[in-house]
Amino acid sequence: MKIKRALISVYDKTNITDLASFLTQQQIEILSTGNTYKALSDAGIKTQEVSDYTQFPEILGGRVKTLHPKIHGGILCNREKHKTEMQNLGVEPIDLLITNLYPFRETVSSGSNEEQIIEQIDIGGVALIRAAAKNFRFTSVISSIQDYEALKAEMIKNNNETTLEYRKHLATKAFALTAHYDSNIHSWFLSQSKNNELPEFFALYGHKVQELRYGENPHQKAAFYSNQFTKYPLEKIHGKELSYNNIVDIESALNIISEFEEPAAVIIKHNNPCGAAIGDNALEAYEKALSCDEISSFGGIVALNREIDLKLAEKLNEIFLEVVIAPSVNNEALKILQRKKNLRVIIHKSFQQNVKYQIKNVVGGFLVQANNNHTIKAEEMSRVTECTTTEKEKEDLIFAWKICKHVKSNAIVIAKDGCAIGIGAGQTSRIDSVNIAVKKAGEKCKGAVLASDAFFPFPDSIVESAKHGITAIIQPGGSLKDQDVIKAANENKIAMFFTGVRSFFH
Domains of the chain (ranges plus CATH)? Predict the structure, then answer.
């Protein structure tokens, strides 16, 4: 399709005069809108303003510029079927559209107010792009600055023509852009809503931030797509590129560390915590977390919610780690960590995860659920046994519960002195998870507490816990066998608390 006439209407004018100059050299007529017309004219490029061509001015403070039959007719016309009608109406074909959209996403990210955000919802630009993309058999649509050079090469190669294959490629990109743009607008409106019900329609879209080395396994391709208004919140300051599994594990680490305001450390391995602790400072928290399961921690991911200093960096360097995440790293500590060239060092300023929904792919679609933001205070725990606990044991119960909700079900967490000393994860029976957790904890079980993400279906887990010295248990309750379970706890002098809330994590 030979290009004879182009419409240029761009918000971001980067490199536009260079492209327009190329088009005029090819004897291509240019139409342009307000500010684009001024920029091209100031650069000495011959162009006709759209309002002169349509004989209708821009109105409503620029809200309406290109929504006119002579513009959309020129873009949408079938050069063969509509030729006579076009001549009778005085509508000229537009063979090339070059446009980009108002920066809605960036305006939201900048903290602008509602009025400013609404003004950045592009109407005319989206309508132009959709029209040109629909009519790809006759019209080329350039919706990204990154495609300027490719357009030039295509035109030079084909004597000012574009191939059908190329136009279809451009249309595919154009519809992806408008879908992404509209999904951002929908997401913003959704974020403003005070309605806690799941929306009737759920728009899921993202832009590719980076290619990953590989997926879950080396033979699987992978990339990271972001659907956030702000830029990706992780800043890598050292180490090789992140892998698919790294990002999955980082998410788990951030979810757990966000539970704590006091100095805390968590070690993740295969999307499960193998160590977690709080302490008086970051070094103490990490040393306690590492003591939970030093063997499993090898090759893990560590997240801390305090700055990494020299002593902590030296301790981190004692074993092989894939990733270290912290809100900051001082200069001395960074030099120590940089001794390991492959260790990824990630800065993450805010550990408060404000994710509203969780999404999971399934056959034929995807599942959406509200995020599990459940928390519990000591006064909200319901004691169901005769035995009582100390304040320290209650603190450990709450600590264990916070960790337990992030462990793959069936989940058991044994804790003592603000440290997870035994974790049983992902087993098909609860007693198996208990057995793994007590084995991991060993002799440290004596005087420790235990958290379960769901109710105990039978008293066997209570009896097994008692054998190893567990003194208190926190669990949701709700089993048909609750009374048998409570009886077993009383007989074994174990205090038991119900939360009334289950925390499965599949």
Answer: 5-192 (3.40.50.1380), 233-347 (3.40.140.20), 378-498 (3.40.140.20)
Amino acid at 222: A
Residues near 360 by beta carbon (within 8 Å), at least 6 away in sequence:
366, 367
Residues 298-347 have pLDDT tens digits of: 999 999 999 999 999 999 999 999 999 999 999 999 999 999 999 999 99
Task: Respond yes or no: is residue 270 known to be catalytic.
Answer: yes
3-class secondary structure, 165: helix
Rounded Cα–Cα distance for residues 60 and 184 (Å): 25
Q: Of the ranges 357-361, 368-372, 394-398, which is most confident?
A: 394-398
> Taking the alpha carbons of 378, 380, 381, 386 in that order, is the dihedral positive or negative?
positive
- For residue 351, the model assigns a pLDDT of 61
Q: What are phi and psi of 475, to 5 degrees?
A: -155, 165
Q: Which of 4, 38, 134, 311 is catalytic?
A: 134
Contact (CB, 8 A) for 20 and 46: no
Residue 128's nearest CA partner among 102, 165, 151, 89 is 102
134 is catalytic: yes
* Cα→Cα distances 492→448, 482, 485, Å: 14, 15, 11
Q: First CA to last CA across the chain, in angstroms?
A: 53
C-alpha–C-alpha distance, residues 304 and 279, integer Å? 11
Residue 505: both structure tokens together? 């994590």
8: nearest Cα among 135, 150, 140, 178 = 140
62: left (phi over 0), alpha (psi -120 to 50) or beta: left
Backbone angles phi, psi at 268, to 5 degrees: -110, 140
What is the rounded CA–CA span in Å between residue 85 and residue 77? 10
- The DSSP letter of residue 147 is G
From the list 383, 378, 412, the residue with the least C-alpha distance to 396 is 378
Can you give the pTM of this predicted structure?
A: 0.77
Q: Which of 38, 186, 270, 481 is catalytic?
A: 270
**CA-based R_g, the chain, Å:** 30
- At residue 287, φ and ψ (nearest 5 deg) are -60, -40
Cβ atoms 381, 391 nearer than 8 A:
no
CB-side neighbour CA atoms (13 Å) of 259: 27
Cis (ω within 30 of 0) for the bond into 410?
A: yes
Strands 300-304 and 264-269, by their bridges, are antiparallel
